[in-house]
Specification:
The protein has 69 residues and is mainly α. It contains two helices and no strands.
């Protein structure tokens, strides 16, 4: 487990509820906090979506392998 296996998402249809991230307009606050905590630009990009295609490919490969068994 590590930065390559994590993603950020939200559900604002029912209210975010997090201080500083109560709605989609405050999403920049999350990025600002990641920068403040020393995350690299590459890690932040991974968290905001770059991890998804690779992980989804692993899920699909696992599903194909399971169906073939």
């Amino acid at each position: 487990m590590g930065i390559e296996h994590v993603g950020l998402s939200s559900d604002f249809n029912h209210g975010g509820g997090d201080i500083g991230w109560r709605n989609s307009g405050e999403t920049r606050n999350v990025t600002a906090e990641l920068v403040r905590r020393g995350f690299s630009d590459q890690d932040i990009a991974r968290l905001w979506g770059e991890n998804f295609p690779a992980l989804w490919g692993e899920v699909q490969a696992g599903a194909r392998a399971g169906a073939a068994a």
